[in-house]
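Page header: ASSEMBLY MODEL / two components / 506 residues total.
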Amino acid sequence: MSLAVELAGVSFGYRPGQRVLEDVDLELGEGEFVALAGPNGGGKTTLVRIMLGLERPTRGTALLYGEPAHRFSRRRALGYLAQRSELGGDAPATVREVVSAGRLAAGGLIGPLRRRDRERVTDAIARVGLERVADAPLRTLSGGMQQRAFIAKALAGEPSLLVLDEPTTGVDAESQESLALLLGELHRDLGVTIVYVSHEFGAVEHVVERLVLVRRTIVFDGSPDDLPGVWHDPSHVHARD
Amino acid sequence: MLETEFMRLALGAGAVVGVLAPAVGFFLVQRRQSLTGDGIGHVAFAGVAVGILLDVSPVLTALVAAVLGGVAIELLRTHGRAAGDQALALVFYTGIALGVVLVAQAGALNVGLFQYLFGSILTVTRSDLALVALLGACGLATIGLFYRPLAGVVIDEEGARVAGVPIAALNVMLAALAAVTVALSMRVVGILLVAALMVLPVSAAGRIAWSMRSTLVLSMVIGLGSALAGLTLSYYADLPPGGTIVLVAAGTFAVCALTGVLRGR
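Prediction written out in full:
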């Protein structure tokens, strides 16, 4: 299996002496569905930013599909749903407008979207089940539906690697379950590599193949079935030193 | 009113600025950078002062200063250690202080400044209108061509950055567009009120629109309507044109906000 992500001996601090991440080794194969979990402040988002080339490690190397992550040449292959994705201003963007923004890198920057790009947008909206509200303003939808729209936005770019950072923030338990099932379907149908980042992994435990727990370094890496019982209690992850 | 050439020229310049200012302001407002136009306006004031001191066209020097100031605000915001509002404050106060000192040096503290601070649309000449129309058309064409990436960055800047969209170049382009808009709007509503024409129509449109695109179009319509109605009102009621235009825009905002509340939004 060729590798999508390869981190070797990665350490990172935002200022000298700070240790947000320490000696992280992590390999993610193409087509894997991985949950990256750990306590808030444990370094998950930083790890993802290094993975995607948005930050450079203080020590160690970060490769994306074999290339240095910060100089990765095929960026349109990446889909990223940042933590707390939300619209900036007052404009009532519709689901279709949000999803169309996902075709920017693939569809070119100048002029209106071409027919093929518009079809990709429609397909992505249908895949997350939002066809009936495609032209509704996003702010009129529930938190779960808004997150589906942002997932569709990431899918519209036809990514090989999809990274979702805390996609269930502000989403009720029922919607978390249905979001997890949706991601399982996407993984199965599209074969896309998915990294699901969350401070708790209960919602996706049954759909991911691999669970990685991060607390400054990797403290567990394996199948959710092999996770010691005590780790299933999120408070354990939070309290342990 | 239309028999007089100065009013025809004023309405022409007002129409261009009335459409362009909200079109550029739309992207600034959505990115919570509503006061950027104000910051650039203060730098433009320093540019006016340089023009008066060197005895060259103050509009031209204001245009150059505004572009430099706009790009500086953007670079400070993204690369500097200062937070967005501090970057703005730095440029804001440096610009106005520099302007005051330079104008005093030129011995023109009381002469002609009023027209740049509060606008002087009734003194627009044919060549002024030609410049406003040319630059306005360039600005609107740029927005038309790059609407998708500019809107995409509003929707999800971090996602676009990861996917390789050239965010820095787009941000600098938006800053330059804002600077050109400020320089052109200076004659219409004045430096002190220019940001109002970039923000109020957009805020008003956001209360009644149903999509991003409709917000942009409605804000341009409201900007155009405010400019033309404000000029007409100022002609018949003998009021200052710049202030009247902005008050019409503010009144439109109040009506749209009320409509939005009544419609439960």
